[in-house]
Amino acid sequence: MERQLNNPEKGFRVAVVGAGIVGLLCAIGLTRAPNGAKMKVEVFEAAAEFGEIGAGIGLGPNAIQALKAIGVLDALLEKVPLQPSAFKFRELSGSGDVIYEIPARDNDYVARLYRPVYLDALVPMLDPACVHFRKRCLQVTVSTTGCHVIHFADGTSHETDLVIGADGIRSVCRDFVTNGENRLAFSGRYAYRGLIPVEALKQHKLTVNFDQPNIWLGRNEHVIAYTIKDGELLNFVPVRKESATTSPVDGPWVRPVSTEEILDKFSSSGEDISTMIKLMENPVEWALHMVHPSLHTFSREKTVLVGDAAHAMLPHMGAGAGQGIEDAVFLSLLLTHPATDLANIDVVLEVYNKYRVPRANGAAARSARTGEVYGSYSGNPRSLDYVRDELRDFVWHHDLNKDLDEAFAVLGEMRNL
């Protein structure tokens, strides 16, 4: 039976395109909020079921704060514990000596989790009746009545009042927002992603332990590793900048790769890194792309972008997922505010852009700069102060609640007009 709006006078229809980490959170925020009854929410996912690409995901204090604001943090903490935020930098070559540390600070906690765990915690919060699988979005258009129409690969379409594009880095919804202008760029870097069973590591005499994340630095290459899934798996990601930067944006970005090929590319690495590369299970090579130039707005008419669709960034600060979570929380709380209705959605999206565009684009710029710091490391540990300061001060300790209070004040004034 089709679900009806509880408040048709002020209600509106919302379509979330994409049911990954960010789209799922958007839908939960919209449907669980006290004022969520004024909208009808539908979620459209290209895949046949819920699932996430990749393995590990890191959530900093900013993402933890956002998840708490929307009321889903406790469910996640039942699946994964918070951990201190410390990590170490090491030399990539030789013995892998520690060259720099970012110590944990009081009340600085992070969550490092296996992506399926995130889904296991959040999927039960969403009414399955509102989720439609095997719905790959091909295009967003505007009808003669002003409604937005989502066209799917199976030949069907869906009309809605508001489109939330959570369809990832290759976003079709972004094409609508940019009026067809391509905003994807290849970074010149490749990441080699794989998981390593921690039990397998214990059979080798490594000089490093994994009580906290480790990052190894070398010229134009670095490696990051941290444990996930209650310490059962090591998320292991070597990254290398290549001299040739001709990866086609429209071509395949991911391919299976052998450990022998990775060993050849990281031949100057120390023994620990070589051992871990040999233990990688089913490694793949990812060509790292980003949204560039950055968008000056995340919306056009009544289509709005969140997460990688809006600001896909390089992974060097581990900030992308957290920014997407901030987007989802901020947008869902604005849309479920008592003052929001179909007549003023344009104003609500202006408020969203005012806060989220500089915030997310700022994180993307700092992530790109961090990659340059890593790749140009030449033995001066003080060069890593930039990473420590920007990670702590800009990425982790931004006051999302302050942004929300200011945004709510604007909506409150609008309500009183």
Automatic annotation (TrEMBL):
GO BP terms: secondary metabolite biosynthetic process
Keyword Electron transport appears in the UniProt entry: no
SUPFAM superfamilies reported in the protein's UniProt record: FAD-linked reductases, C-terminal domain, FAD/NAD(P)-binding domain
Domain FAD-binding: 13-365
GO molecular function: FAD binding; oxidoreductase activity
TM ranges: 12-30
Keywords of this entry: FAD, Flavoprotein, Membrane, Oxidoreductase, Transmembrane, Transmembrane helix
Protein name, per record: FAD/NAD(P)-binding domain-containing protein
